[in-house]
Design goal:
The chain is built from 13 helices and 7 strands. The chain is of the alpha/beta class. A 7-stranded parallel β-sheet has the order 3-2-4-1-5-6-7, sandwiched between helices. It binds adenosine-5'-triphosphate and magnesium ion. Adenosine-5'-triphosphate binds near residues 17, 19 and 137.
Length: about 270
């Protein structure tokens, strides 16, 4: 029997620190060697847009159909949206997920819909080595669902106190929710993103702040992702870093993501 896919959610309670950027590039790099399913659980559908999936296309299903039921994994998965990365599939999202969230809040077993989908579709999903889920910054019912099903949660923060507070708030609120759901602690990593090399003092102060908080200090990844025009370009070009060509700056940005992957492997997350 194939190994179990490792399910990883990227989250926090602050908008814009780089969650989607992380999911997009990590999924694409991991897909060079392994089958990866990216899941867009954010109604802003930024990950879906980065992968150039047009959900208005005929017959294209989305994460909404997972939560509303009646479809198999095979039916909701969009295969190989990036032709150069045939091992990378996606369950896309759309703005309609906002309505879906409102529709499921009063259902019995509402926190378990996504997990039940995984269990019901196990035979199909076990082909993936990694399932990597992008979220938006809240702890609503959709996010509770994907967090409940996750082996690991990776938090992302930019180099700012307000951003790290989003990670802290996430840990505090998710701890309360997951204990009620009898889910063991799965918050496994904190990635710092968007470090502008000129802001050395800000980084130092942030690292001092993190060092004082055990729950943050213990999960902090070694690699700090710099602010990079090439990383930004992964969004504007809608191409992951490994498909942006061989320029030095691209190679450097790619190397940073490989360092993040090495950190995650060292911690037993990947
Ligand atoms: N290391 C980086 N260097 C340069 N630009 C970056 C970097 N990381 C993210 N960005 C840019 O910052 C913006 C926000 O990133 P992203 O969309 O990944 O954040 P997010 O956490 O997913 O936001 P949201 O909470 O809205 O989902 C994007 O325009 C992205 O291209
Ligand atoms: Mg996002």
């Amino acid at each position: 029997m194939a190994e179990k896919p490792i399910i990883i959610t990227i989250g926090t309670l602050k908008g814009g620190p780089g969650k989607t950027t992380e999911v997009f590039n990590l999924s694409a790099l991991l897909a060079e060697k392994h089958p990866v399913l990216a899941v867009d659980a954010d109604p802003q559908f930024n990950l879906t847009a980065n992968m150039r999936v047009n959900v208005m296309g005929k017959g294209i299903k989305t994460i909404k159909n997972v939560f509303e039921g009646g479809y198999t994994a095979e039916e909701v998965i969009y295969k190989s949206p990036i032709p150069e990365l045939p091992n990378l599939d996606i369950i896309p999202s759309s703005i309609e997920l906002i309505a879906t969230e409102l529709n499921i809040v009063n259902l019995a077993g509402r926190e378990h819909i996504f997990n039940n989908f995984i269990l019901d579709n196990w035979e199909y999903l076990k082909r993936y080595k990694y399932i990597i889920i992008d979220t938006n910054p809240n702890l609503g019912m959709i996010n509770q669902n994907v967090l409940f099903s996750s082996d690991h949660v990776i938090l992302v923060s930019s180099i700012s106190l307000n951003s790290i507070m989003g990670a802290e708030l996430f840990i505090a609120l998710w701890t309360g929710i997951r204990q009620r759901l009898r889910k063991l602690d799965n918050v496994a990593a904190l990635a710092l993103n968007n470090y502008d090399g000129r802001a050395k003092k800000d980084l130092k102060e942030l690292l001092e702040y993190i060092d004082e908080k055990e729950d943050l200090r213990d999960i902090l990844l070694k690699t700090i992702i710099p602010t990079s025009a090439e990383i930004k370009r992964t969004e504007t070009r809608r191409r992951p870093i490994n498909l942006l060509g061989g320029k030095k700056a691209v190679r450097e940005a790619k190397a940073v993501f490989f360092d993040v992957i090495a950190d995650l492997k060292e911690r037993g997350i990947l």
